[in-house]
Specification:
This protein has 628 residues and is α/β, with parallel strands linked by helices. It is 27% helix and 26% strand. It contains 14 helices and 31 strands. The strands form 8 sheets. Strands 14-13-15-16-23-22-21-18-19 form a 9-stranded mixed sheet. Helix 6 packs across helix 7. The longest helix is centred in the N-terminal third of the chain and has 18 residues.
Length: 628
């Protein structure tokens, strides 16, 4: 039962009841939830992620006797003991969740339940029976988790409002693991518990911050192996250094989109933005929060990110119990204020849902190349930065991991290479075979050692030395600052120099290789820029501009403003949808089409007959073009 559709983005939110937050089940008020759902439906929300709090729904604990001997397990403080087959479910809570589904049906809302919600907003909510146990590796804990999941799914699997199942909320935060295998085993067991009862519905990971195998035990590859969908929970936050720049600028705005594409490609499964938002009033006022949402949601839509669920439906600033009493960030970043008035960010979702419902499905964007991330580096800093630079150069990227399969592409980008063990011999051979047959290859160097570098790239190295300073690099008529790990003394053979540093050393080289072209930059520019404040305001994209010259992407739209992202979506051989999103500042931008293409229809925004586009910061313009 496939829920998400390519070309459509569900703009919804995560939901805790407006009056009680996480305690909504123990303080259940059907009338308030009814009012909440009515309000959410009025802004076009059709999808909610909901949380049956684990400790409320499976309130199991031990009953102790003489000398602490376990006399059995109970859910009612020892009045009755569970038999061998009882999963310990609280029937009152299950009935309340049934009422929640009834209300979803009433307002045409689909639900993604996350049964194993043991971690929420900085606090663990686990059954007393399992307190102190490792919830990921302990067999006793896993047994009760599986029993809970099966009982929950069995009860509600026939309800049409259930869109899909989610394992829980960021379950990798519940307990530590000592190996990748422990994490994989837990995910596989819990996913199988869902599938054994409801084989037709898809299972969503619900995870945040998963990595490549050399970075963490919770890997995207393993998550993709176990689940039908992987997820991102991107915020303008310290987690990925997206809180360093103003929220309405290119790095924070593109982050949800880029991380979602990255996660889908590395995991090998579809991915959507399951939870996103800002950290409230200390990061910006309501208008700025709305701008962040506006730029990010249209960007996600234009890159086929499937879903965008805001955190959260209602402000929670008046709640005083833990975690709200101590976690001062987890408070007022809802779509609605506590007095039930709609905030500017809620208006953004309303406008997007109105637009999306009339527009229909958006075809896939044209993709120009693959960014290959490698071990022994912060893969996201390198890959996410490459995505931004490529976007500024009018290139669209997907991702791959160098220890997995090499995808077919017109161009390959290996950003900020740090490792001497990033590739196997067969991988390099396959990659250079792609280049020999016409692909382009770009590598930027940190401490990395590409195999056969001097043979394949048309130069040789006389020597090298480590450095710890920034250089001024001249490319064309522009000078840009870059900081590297190593300075190389090179002698050009067949290679052409595209840029020199202030000492006159050749630092950006181009060479023919068979039918293709290879480029090498002597600086890890991507990792360098990702750590800077406002790192993408200069002209570092000129590096990617040079690579673009050798790529025949088939795109027909250009725009000189490099803070405006452009995607092209072929409808047919003679028709395309064009989406422009402003990741920078208010602008009037001139769009230029290749000869033979004409403006057809404007769906969103202001576009003149001469393709002059007035586009404010974080706004999006959508129009179609046709070939004569």
């Amino acid at each position: 039962m496939k829920f998400f559709e390519n070309g459509k983005l569900y703009a919804g939110c995560n939901y805790w009841a407006s009056h009680a937050g996480i305690y909504m089940w123990s303080r259940w008020d059907r009338d308030i939830v009814d009012k909440d759902f009515k309000q959410l439906s009025e802004i076009g929300i059709e999808l909610l992620r909901v949380f049956p709090l684990w400790s409320d729904f499976q309130p199991v604990n031990k009953v102790y006797g003489y000398h602490g001997i376990n006399n059995g397990i109970s859910t009612d403080n020892g009045e009755t003991l569970l038999n061998s087959f009882d999963p310990g479910i609280d029937e009152t809570m299950m009935e309340r969740f049934s009422q929640l589904i009834d209300l979803a049906d009433k307002y045409g809302i689909k639900l993604i339940p996350s049964p194993l919600t043991g971690w929420m907003s900085g606090r663990l909510f686990v059954p007393h029976l399992l307190e102190g146990k490792n919830l990921i590796t302990d067999p006793f804990a896993i047994k009760w988790e599986v029993r809970f999941v099966k009982a929950f799914v069995r009860r509600f699997k026939d309800r049409k409002a259930i869109a899909a199942w989610c394992l829980g909320n960021e379950c990798n935060c519940m307990s530590p693991v000592e190996s990748r295998e422990q994490a994989w085993l837990w995910m596989d067991i819990i996913t199988d518990a869902f599938k054994s009862v409801d084989p037709d519905r898809e299972v969503i990971s619900g995870m945040h911050s998963q990595f490549t195998p050399d970075e963490d035990h919770w890997t995207l590859q393993d998550c993709g192996d176990c689940c039908d969908y992987v997820t991102t929970h991107p915020y303008a936050s310290p987690s990925y250094a997206t809180d360093r720049d103003p929220m309405n600028t290119i790095k924070p705005l593109l982050h949800p989109t880029a991380q979602t594409i990255y996660s889908a490609d590395i995991a090998g499964k579809p991915c959507f933005i399951e939870e996103t938002g800002t950290f409230g009033q200390m990061y910006g006022d309501e208008e700025l929060n709305a701008k962040y949402c506006e730029g990010a949601i249209y960007s996600a839509w234009s890159h086929n990110c499937l879903g965008y669920l805001w955190w959260i439906g209602y402000d929670q600033g008046s709640l005083t119990y833990h975690p709200f009493g101590y976690n001062n960030r987890a408070s007022n970043y809802g779509l609605y204020r506590e007095d039930r008035t709609l905030k500017p960010v809620g208006k953004v979702l309303k406008c997007f849902n109105e637009f999306a419902s009339t527009f229909g499905k958006l075809p896939e964007r044209i993709v120009d190349g693959v960014c290959i991330v490698t071990p022994d580096q912060n893969t996201w800093n390198a890959g996410g930065s490459a995505f931004i630079l490529a976007k500024q150069a009018r290139l669209d990227l997907r991702f791959a991991y160098s220890l997995d399969d090499l995808p077919d592409a017109k161009a390959y980008f290996i950003p900020s290479l740090q490792s001497a063990n990033a590739f196997g011999t067969n991988y390099i051979k396959a990659l250079m075979n792609k280049v020999e047959n016409g692909a382009s290859l770009y590598i930027s160097l940190g401490h990395g050692f590409p195999r056969n570098l001097t043979d394949d790239f048309g130069f040789h190295i006389k020597g090298r030395r480590n450095v710890d300073k920034a250089d001024s690099v001249t490319i064309g008529d522009d000078s840009i600052t870059m900081k590297g790990n190593v300075i190389y003394d090179v002698v050009l053979n067949s290679a052409e120099s595209l840029a020199k540093n202030q000492d006159g050393k050749d630092v950006f080289l181009k060479s023919a290789y068979g039918k293709g072209t290879v480029y090498i930059l002597m600086y890890p520019v991507e990792s360098y820029l990702y750590g800077l404040l406002d790192g993408y305001s200069d002209k570092h994209y000129k590096i990617y501009d040079e690579v673009k010259k050798s790529i025949d992407s088939g795109k027909v739209v250009s725009c000189e403003n490099r803070m405006i992202g452009v995607t092209e979506h072929p409808v047919s051989e003679n028709e395309r949808i064009v989406v422009l999103t402003n990741y920078g500042y208010d602008a009037t931008a001139q769009v230029v089409l290749d000869e033979g293409w004409l403006l057809d229809k404007v769906y969103l925004g202001n576009v003149t007959d001469t393709l002059l586009v007035e586009i404010e910061n974080t706004k999006t313009t959508v129009f179609s073009i046709k070939k004569r």
